[in-house]
TrEMBL record:
Positions annotated as active site in the UniProt record: C2 (for gatase activity)
Source organism (scientific name): Solanum bulbocastanum
Site keyed Important for beta-aspartyl-AMP intermediate formation: positions: E343
EC number: 6.3.5.4
A biological-process GO annotation: asparagine biosynthetic process
Xref: NCBIfam families: asn_synth_AEB, PRK09431.1
Keyword Repeat: no
Domain Glutamine amidotransferase type-2: 2-185
Keywords, sorted A to Z: Amino-acid biosynthesis, Asparagine biosynthesis, ATP-binding, Glutamine amidotransferase, Ligase, Nucleotide-binding
Name of this chain's protein: Asparagine synthetase [glutamine-hydrolyzing]
C-alpha cells in the first residue's frame, strides 16, 4: 500500500504551500516508507509515499505518460497490467510498474477506462494540458480514499483522513466504485454489477466454477517482486487462501524468485482458538509458519495508536484491528511487505452467524449486498490500515471483481443455512473445495464454525477490553453520552472509551461523520437485527452475541 495526497485549485502556490504539502504527505509515510515523490503544476500538487511491491527499482511515483502531460499518483495494484499493455503497444512505457498503465489508458480512452482495471486501487490523475483531473476508487473500496474541500475553494484527496483533517473544512470517505471528474463537477458510479441492484439471482450453484474463479483470484495476487506470505487464522477463509496459494506457488514467478515454501502468519493470545487451528492447517500444508503472541495488556497499550491509524471508533473494527496491527509489525520485522488475507467471504456468502436467522433467501441475499457495499467502512478499512501502519500490503482474493460477480450470481437458496440438509454457514464454499481425491484441507477445518477475528484470537481479549473500558468510563459519563456525543452516541462504556480517543485525534464533525453507526449483533446491519427479537437485548458485535447459534454464545441478560 502507498499513500497519496493531491490538492487542486490552491489560491496559494508559494514555496510555503509546497512545504505544507510535503509536511502533510509525511503523515502518510508509514504507508509508503520506500520513497517520497511530489509533482507541482501551478496550483496543483500530487504527492506520493511509496511502498515498493512491483518493480521496486524504477516504479517511483508520480508516474507519467510519454511527454509528462499526464501525471498520476496511485495506491494499489493492477493485476492485469500486462494484458492492458498489449492494448497500448503504440505507447512508450518508462517503468515496469503495474500502475503506469493508468496514465496511458487515460491518454487512449479518456475517463472511460476504469472498468478495464482488474485490481485494488485509488488514484488521482492530472491532465496538465487543460488542468482537469480525475480521482477514482476500486469497486469495493479495498484501498482507502478521502475527499475534502478547503475554504479557499481547493479540492483535496488523500489515502487517509489525517492528511486532510487540519486543512479541510469538510471531508468525506470517497465512495467505492466511483470516479470524480473535474470536467463534470461531481461523482459518478463506474462499477455497475448486476448484484448492486439487489435483484435476486437464479443461477444454479456450480462448485467447480466457484472453485476455479477463486483459484484464479488467488494466483493473480501472487504478483510481487518482494517477500510475501498469507495471514492464517485457521478459519475457513484464510485456510482456503493459504491452501490455494500453496498449491500453485511453485508455478508462479513469485515462487521461482522467493522459493516454493509459503510463509504463513498467525496472532493470538496464548492458547487461543486461532493459534491451534492455524498451526494445524500450516502443518497440513507444510508452510513456514510464524506464530505471534500478545497479551491483553499489550493490546490495550496499543489502542491509541490503533485508533489513530485505523481512523475509526467502531467497536468491532478496533477489536479486530488491534491484533492485526500488532501482527503486522512483527511481519514487517521479518522483511515481508505483502500478505494475502481472507476478508470478504463472510459478506459474500453470509458467513456471519446471525445469517442462521435469515427468514428467506430474498432477505439473505439483500443482506449480503448491504454487507458488501459497506465493506469499505469496516473490514477493508481494518485490513488495509492496520497493515499499512507498518508498511505491509494486504491483498484480498475473495474481493476479486470477477469472483464476486460469479458468487453473487448464485441463487441464494444455495447459500441459506439449512441444518436439515447438513448445510452450515458458507456451505457453498466448503463444498466447492471438498475434494476427496486431491484435498485442499482436512475435513474438520473445512467445516469449522465461523469465528470472528476478534473472537478467535482469544475470547479473553474482548472481555479484557470491556473490563478496561469499565475502569475508564464512569456510569455518569455513559449516562450523559448523548449530550457529549450527539452524533452516533456510544451505548457502551467500551464504545465511549474508543470515542474519546478518536475525538482527541480527529475533533472535527466531518471526521466523526465518516464512521457508520446503528444497532448491530454479531456484525449484522441494523436491518438484520430485526430477524430475532432476542438480539435487540444483546447488541454486541462479537460472534458470541448470536444467541442460540454460536457454540460459546453469551448468556441472555435480563434488561
Amino acid at each position: 500500500m502507498c499513500g497519496i495526497l493531491a490538492i487542486f485549485g490552491c489560491t496559494d502556490n508559494s514555496h510555503a504551500k509546497r512545504s505544507r504539502v510535503i509536511e502533510l504527505s509525511r503523515r502518510l509515510r508509514h504507508r509508503g516508507p520506500d520513497w517520497s515523490g511530489l509533482h507541482c503544476h501551478e496550483d496543483c500538487y500530487l504527492a506520493h509515499q511509496r511502498l515498493a511491491i512491483v518493480d521496486p527499482t524504477s516504479g517511483d511515483q508520480p508516474l507519467y505518460n510519454e511527454d509528462k502531460t499526464i501525471v498520476v499518483a496511485v495506491n494499489g495494484e493492477i493485476y492485469n497490467h500486462k494484458e492492458l499493455r498489449e492494448k497500448l503497444k503504440s505507447h512508450q512505457f518508462r517503468t515496469e510498474s503495474d500502475c503506469e498503465v493508468i496514465a496511458h489508458l487515460y491518454e487512449e480512452y479518456g475517463e472511460n477506462f476504469i472498468d478495464m482495471l482488474d485490481g485494488m486501487f485509488s488514484f488521482v490523475l492530472l491532465d496538465t494540458r487543460d488542468k482537469s483531473f480525475i480521482a477514482a476508487r476500486d469497486a469495493i473500496g479495498i484501498t482507502p480514499l478521502y475527499m475534502g474541500w478547503g475554504l479557499d475553494g481547493s479540492i483535496w484527496f488523500s489515502s487517509e483522513m489525517k492528511a486532510l483533517s487540519d486543512d479541510c473544512e469538510r471531508f468525506v470517505s470517497f465512495l467505492p466504485g466511483h470516479i470524480y471528474s473535474s470536467k463534470n463537477g461531481g461523482l459518478r458510479r463506474w462499477y455497475n454489477p448486476p448484484w448492486f441492484s439487489e435483484t435476486i439471482p437464479s443461477t444454479p450453484y456450480d462448485p467447480l466454477v466457484l472453485r476455479k474463479a477463486f483459484e484464479k483470484a488467488v494466483v493473480k495476487r501472487l504478483m510481487t517482486d518482494v517477500p510475501f506470505g498469507v495471514l492464517l487464522s485457521g478459519g475457513l477463509d484464510s485456510s482456503l487462501v493459504a491452501a490455494v496459494a500453496n498449491r500453485y506457488l511453485a508455478d508462479t514467478e513469485a515462487g521461482r524468485q522467493w522459493g516454493s515454501q509459503l510463509h504463513t502468519f498467525c496472532v493470538g493470545l496464548k492458547g487461543s482458538p486461532d493459534l491451534k487451528a492455524a498451526r494445524e492447517v500450516a502443518d497440513y500444508l507444510g508452510t513456514r509458519h510464524h506464530e505471534f503472541h500478545f497479551t491483553v495488556q499489550e493490546g490495550i497499550d496499543a489502542l491509541e495508536e490503533v485508533i489513530y491509524h485505523v481512523e475509526t471508533y467502531d467497536v468491532t473494527t478496533i477489536r479486530a484491528s488491534t491484533p492485526m496491527f500488532l501482527m503486522s509489525r512483527k511481519i514487517k520485522s521479518l522483511g515481508v511487505k505483502m500478505v494475502l488475507s481472507g476478508e470478504g467471504s463472510d459478506e459474500i456468502f453470509g458467513g456471519y452467524l446471525y445469517f442462521h436467522k435469515a427468514p428467506n433467501k430474498e432477505e439473505f441475499h439483500q443482506e449480503t449486498c448491504r454487507k458488501i457495499k459497506a465493506l469499505h467502512l469496516y473490514d477493508c478499512l481494518r485490513a488495509n490500515k492496520s497493515t499499512s501502519a507498518w508498511g505491509v500490503e494486504a491483498r484480498v482474493p475473495f474481493l476479486d471483481k470477477e469472483f464476486i460477480n460469479i458468487a453473487m450470481n448464485i441463487d441464494p437458496e444455495w447459500k441459506m443455512i439449512r441444518p436439515d440438509l447438513g448445510r452450515i454457514e458458507k456451505w457453498v464454499v466448503r463444498n466447492a473445495f471438498d475434494d476427496d481425491q486431491n484435498p485442499y484441507l482436512p475435513k474438520h477445518i473445512l467445516y469449522r464454525q465461523k469465528e470472528q477475528f476478534s473472537d478467535g484470537v482469544g475470547y479473553s481479549w474482548i472481555d479484557g477490553l470491556k473490563d478496561h473500558a469499565n475502569s475508564q468510563v464512569s456510569d455518569s459519563m455513559l449516562a450523559n453520552a448523548s449530550f457529549v456525543y450527539p452524533h452516533n452516541t456510544p451505548t457502551t462504556k467500551e464504545g465511549y472509551y474508543y470515542r474519546t480517543i478518536f475525538e482527541r485525534y480527529f475533533p472535527k464533525a466531518a471526521a466523526r461523520e465518516t464512521v457508520p453507526g446503528g444497532p448491530s449483533v454479531a456484525c449484522s446491519t441494523a436491518k438484520a437485527v430485526e430477524w430475532d427479537a432476542a438480539w435487540s437485548k444483546n447488541l454486541d458485535p462479537s460472534g458470541r452475541a448470536a444467541l442460540g447459534v454460536h457454540e460459546a454464545a453469551y448468556e441472555v441478560k435480563e434488561t
